[in-house]
Amino acid sequence: MTRLARVTVCSGALRANLARIRSLAPRARVLAVVKANAYGHGAVTVARALGEADAFGVANLAEAVQLREAGVRQPVLVLGGFRNDEELAAISRLGLWTVVHQDWQVERLTAASLPAPVGVWLKLDTGMHRLGLEAGPFREAWRRLEDHVNCLRPPVLMTHLACADDAAHPEFTHAQLRRFHAVTEGLRGESSIANSAALLAFPQTRAGWIRPGLLLYGAWPLLGGAQRDGLAWRPAMRLSAPVIAVRRLRAGDAVGYGATWVCPEDMDVAVVAAGYADGYPRHVPPQTPVFIGGRPARVVGRISMDMITVDLRGLPAPRIGDEAVLWGEEVRVDEVARRAGTIPYELLCAAGRCVT
Ligand SMILES: *Cc1c(COP(=O)(O)O)cnc(C)c1O
């Protein structure tokens, strides 16, 4: 630990969010997405906290191996699929599941001699044009895999939505859903469509396997920010850092790089030991909320590499070492992300990488 900023993860919040997801989609099974080190929260910590999840989703084989080595026994799905025969063999050996999204993967899977059959999620491209097979090859692949000895069950029928976060403009999502149903018609097997945004905004996707990520971590996936409902989700990550200086400044004094913020009156400012090296976004404007000594306050001046400055007007002066919360229960990461012109996903991942 070389940084003063701290990421703390609340297992209770993770479990509460999972329970909330289950009550939204009581008939669905939950694949908890823990890729990118569980969005910065720590994949092993989160997988242990979410022992009630039906399965976990990771980006690649290395992330799946990390969970297996930590003793996680639930099914783990490799969302990016395998890249070669060695990875396919490892997936089989470790009892993992894999997404299949290209024809050559179907060839390798049906030609391989594997120690055990693997769970396959066959991915249809319904319009996002990232991973997935086109309609014709999808049906052909499904037919070849349906009863194949290397395939655990009929493949799960899967797609991913590009615009589910935009509840005000549902047309693109409706077109993707229509395409999915048209292409998968008559194929037996479970289906899997919903990410966090779809779960909230498109109730018709709350079936089969759902794949929440962000909501488990208590951040809000829809454009436009969390309304009253959104606040019921419990933020699992807190990013905090100690106060390392309290300064008395005069009217007209400029604060920080670029001298972009100027004190309108004589006032106190706290210096908090966190900055963009800790994953706090450099682009937040002045007035972005923080909590200091348990009270709401505002950032002033530019964000430095390892320091931010906080307006103390109207607040009792904190002591050196008092904690400032940059995001967590008190300040929503969605709100900080919105002000920084980015999404909570990016901030959570960055803080997790920098400090943990
Ligand atoms: C990351 C990911 C998810 C989870 O997305 P959230 O928006 O965090 O809920 C679901 N499915 C796939 C294929 C993903 O890559």
Give an overview in words:
- The chain is of the alpha/beta class.
- The chain is built from eleven helices and 17 strands.
- The protein has two domains: 11-217, TIM Barrel, CATH 3.20.20.10; 237-354, Lyase, Ornithine Decarboxylase, Chain A, domain 1, CATH 2.40.37.10.
- The model has no long low-confidence stretch (mean pLDDT 96).
- The strands form three sheets. It has an eight-stranded parallel sheet. Strands 10-13-16-15-14-17 form a six-stranded antiparallel barrel.
- Helix 10 (333-340) packs across helix 11.
- The radius of gyration is 23 Å and the shape is elongated.
- Residues 33, 35, 79, 160, 195-197, 211-214, 221 line the site of pyridoxal-5'-phosphate (PLP).
Contiguous uncertain segments of 5+ residues: none
Question: How confident overall, as mean pLDDT?
Answer: 96
**Structural class of the helices, strands and pairings?**
alpha/beta
Identify the quaternary structure here: single chain
Topology as a string of helices (H) and strands (E): EHEHHEHEHEHEHEHEHEEEEEEEEEHH
Radius of gyration: 23 Å
Give the count of structural domains: 2
The name of the CATH topology of the largest domain is: TIM Barrel
How many angstroms does the end-to-end distance come to? Answer: 9 Å
CATH architecture of the largest domain: Alpha-Beta Barrel
CATH superfamily of the largest domain: Alanine racemase
Q: Which ligands does the model contain, each kind named once?
A: pyridoxal-5'-phosphate
How many beta strands in the DSSP annotation? 17
